[in-house]
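Trying the structure run again after the queue cleared.
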Amino acid sequence: MNKAQTADPDMLSKWQAFISADEFDHPDIQSDSTGCWESVYLPAAGSNKNTTTPFNSGEIARANIRNTDLVDVVLPVMVDIYESLKGSGFQVLLTDENGLVVKRIPVSESPLFDNWDEQILGANAIGTVIRTKKPMQISGRMHYQHKLRSLTSSAIPIFSYHRELIAVLALVGPKNEDHSHVLTMLQKAAENIINKWNIVQKNRQLLTYNNHLKNIINTMTDGIIIISDTGIIEQANPAAARILGKDTRELSATHLGTILENQPFLNKMLDDGIPFTDMELFLDISSGRIHCLASGQTSRDDKGNITGGIIVLRSIDKVQRMVNSVWGTRAELNFKDIIGNGRTIRTTIEMARIAANNMSNVLLQGESGTGKEIFAQAIHNESTRCKGPFVAVNCGAIPRELVGSELFGYVDGAFTGARRGGKLGKFEMAAGGTLFLDEIGDMPLDQQVVLLRVLQDKLVTRIGDSKEIPVDVRVICATNKNLLREVEKGNFRQDLYYRLNVISIIIPPLCNRREDIGLLVNHYLVKLGVQDNTISNVMNPAVMQYLISYSWPGNVRELQNAIERLAIIADTRHITVADLPHEIRLSKNNFSSEDEPASDLHESYTRKKKQLIAEQESEQILTMLRKLRGNLSEVAKAMGFSRTTLYRKLEAYNISRDSW
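Done. C-alpha cells:
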C-alpha cells in the first residue's frame, strides 16, 4: 500500500498536551477520539496511563460461543479482506458489542489485545465505535494505549435488523500504510455481512415459527394431515394417527386416498381446488369401524398453483360432546336430591346406587310423578359415565312414525320433510354417556325390533342408510306400565323386555311412603322461598293431617304442585284447611276406618314387589336354561348361585324340564 500522509500536527500537539498535563481544556476539540481520551484519563488520574485493566478470559469464551452463528457469516468476508491486504501487516478483527475479540485473522500466539473496550484501552477505533455507533479511524499517537501508537485502527459497526449493535469489524495495521480507503472497504463489507446476517436471522425465525406450528399441530385434538399435490401424506399429527388407528410413521409417505377409500371430495380438492367441510366418513380399520368428520383446504404457491392441502379429521365422539355441551344434555340431579328417610325409599335408593356401579341396562318402574327421571339422572351421575351426556327421550311424546328417526337418526333425503344434511339420532348423541328412554311401554312394536338389535349389537343404522355406526351407550328405561302384562297382551316384545330388565328398580308411590310427606313439604317450602318455612309456622296442624291422609294419585309431582299453590298463600297469611285443593279436602271427608291404613299399604306394596321380583327371576332362569341348553351347572354359575339353590328355585317356581 502507499504511504499514508502524516497526521495532523495540530491534533498531535493537543494529544501531547493531554498526556503531559493533569487538565485538558480545549473547547475547540469536539471529536470522538478526544472525548474518549478524557473519559478514560480522568477516572485513572494519577495512575500509569499505559496500564490496562486485565480482561476476563471466561467472558471472551462466552462471547465466542454466543457469536458462533455470526462468525460463520462474517468469516468468509474477513478472509476476503485479509487476502486483499496480505503481506502489509494488517489484522482483521471481529469483536462483540462489548469489545471482546471473537475472531482475528491472522491467528496470533501473542495478540495485541483481547478486549478493546475504551474503559480498558482508551482511545481506539473499536472502542469508540462501540460508544458512538459510528465508523471510526484512529491513527498513531491519537491512540491512548502506548502499544497502539505505531498503528492505525479502523472500525465499523454491524447492526441487527432492529438497529441494535451486535458486532464491530475492524482493520488494524501500521500507521505508515495508506488507510484512506479502509473505511470504505469496511463499509461495503459490513453491508454484505448485515444482508447475510439478516437472512440467517430470517431463516432462524422461520425455523422457530415452523417449530411453533409443529407444536401447535401436535397438541391439537383434531387430526391434522398435510398432503402433497399428489395426495401423499407429508405430515400427520398424533391425533390423526389416533383417529385412524395407525402410527404416525405408518401414515408418512402413504397416499391419503388409500386411507380415505378414494373419497371423491378428496380428488376434487386436489384436482380442482374445491375445499370441503365436515364430510362424514365411515372407515373400516383393523380395530373396527371409525366414524369421523373431514374438512379439507388446498395450499397454493405464489402463482396460484395447487401444491397440496390440509385435511382436518374430527372424531364424531368429540363432535357429539361439543353438541351436548351446547344443548345442555347433562344430568343435574343426584341421589341427595331424592327427598325421604323412610325405609321404602331408602331401600330403593340403595338398589339404584348398586345399579350405578355397573353398566347393565336398568328398568325403572313406577307410577307417573314418582320421580323416575330423578333416579335416572342420579344413577348416571354416580356412574363412571358421569362426564358423558345424559340424553332423555319421552317415547310417549313422539309421534309413532317419528320414533325411529329420533332414536336412530336419518341421512339426507331419507324421507319427505327430512332435514337437509340428515340428523344425528339420540343414540349417537348419547355416545359415551346414558340414554334415558322414558315411557318405553309406549314404543311402537316395529321400532322395538330395531331397538333390540341396537342393544344387542351396539350398532346403529340411520334411516335411509346402510352403514352401521358403533355406539357406546348405557340405556336406562322407565315406564308406568306393567311391562309383563303388556308382553302378555302382545303390546311389548318379550325378548326386548328381558334385554331391558337386567336391573329392575320399582319406585314406590307417595301413598306408600307417607312418612316422607312432611320432609317433602318442608323441602318445597324452602325451594319456593317461603319465609318462616317450617310447617308449624305456615299452616294449621289439620292441614298436615289432610296432606298425609290424601292418596296422591299424581304422587310427588302432585304434592309439589299443591305446595306451590299453598306457598303463594303463605306469603300473605296462615294456611288453613280451606286453602287446600278441593280433591284433597274431599279425600279427608271420605276417609274411614274401613280404608286400608298406611302400614297395610306398605305391606301390600312389599308383597307385590316380592312377587314381581320372583316372576322376573323365574323368567331369567328359564331364559338361561334355554340359552345354555339345560346345563344346570352353567346356569347356576351364570345366575350367581349354587346348584342347590338353583334346584330349590326350580321347585319353588314350578319349572320343569318340559318348560325349556
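The longest strand covers residues 288-300. Worth checking whether this holds up in the mutant runs.
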